[in-house]
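Worked Example 4.2. Consider the chain below.
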Amino acid sequence: MLTVSLLISAGLLATPLPGELPDGWRVPSDTELADPMFSDAPAALTRVVADFNGDSVEDIALLLKSTRDSAEALWVYMSSLEQSKWLLLNQISWGPEHPDVDLSMRVDKAEPGSYECSSTGQRFNFSNSGLEYFRPGSSSSMFFWNDAKGEFQQVWVSD
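Applying the procedure from the previous section yields the following structure tokens:
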């Protein structure tokens, strides 16, 4: 619980989590968050709190860094009355030749609505909040909960 307490005191979580971060993952350091685009608020766009699956319980998405190797990932803590769990949505591994890579991606809340896939032109309609997962100034995708499959679905909205 020390990890969660530190996150709350650092302002990285709006509400406490009932457990620890995923094994082998940590919050990015101040140095890893350094980005000229976010100099006023370096931790901006590294977490989202919303009800992603429509169960009326808030879930938490976090961008985390690996404690084992040079990697970052988008994790979601799916809160539930029955069983809460961490889900890994995306991981970027930089490899041993790049041991000190700063956080390259950001995450923001995506509102329910209709989104078009950039590669296929197919439209997707989502009734719950989702996640916009993006590299500032570059690629962007959306993650929304798919009730029928019981998992997140990724839709590319730009290259």
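The chain has one domain: 2-158. Residues 2-158 form one domain. Compare this with Example 4.1 before moving on.
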